[in-house]
User: Fold this.
Amino acid sequence: MQVEAVVDVGQEKQGPRWKRRKDARPQELINAALNLFGEFGYSQTRLDDVAAKAGISKGTVYLYFSSKQDLFEAVIRERAAPWIEVIRNRKDDVTQSTEVVLREFLHWGWQQFLESKLYLIARIVLAESNNFPHLAETYLREVMGPVHEQLTALLTRGIERGEVQGEVSRERIKVLLAPMSWLALWRQALQNHSVSPIDEQAYIREAIDMAVRSVIIHNPGTPLRSA
Assistant:
């Protein structure tokens, strides 16, 4: 009877529910890692901590990720995946002005930046990339690279249509995106110590207006603010 009981337990572990649990482990580890990286930073987070938060043994982590760096890169890819998919598959309405398309893209990008918790990753990169340069390299490649490409295409389109002033440059794109880095820093490091809280949605509207105003050619006196 005891032998049969041992066999039954082994069979249960190999059943569908155990299989589902095993298949879900990479995502569970990624979710746990994102929370811990966001709370304690990259350098202070150990794989033991991630395993404990995910409810598995440390040894199991290495079945899916070879190192903490590998896990961090997986967190970035997982968080950025929906963002990148939409960017690469989006098709602009050619009848819309560059201003309208740019506003829509920036508004969508801001919401994704916050909802997908990419701001957590941005804050980690800002704080720790001097000691861990691979953090910045991965973030720039996986997150900011596709955004730079899309904004470059939008501004080039606008220049060709006579709607955008100046030239397209990497520096100009970086200036358009700089407010995102500041908001990431605010959310994770500054807001708890400030006596003057900010309205994030108002901040985003102002950032978008500033970006559009800096590139779009418009007639004097024509308002360029979003509704």
Summary: The chain has two domains: 1-65, 76-220. Residues 1-65 form a domain with the Arc Repressor Mutant, subunit A fold (CATH 1.10.10.60). The first helix runs from residue 2 to 13. The chain has ten helices and no strands.
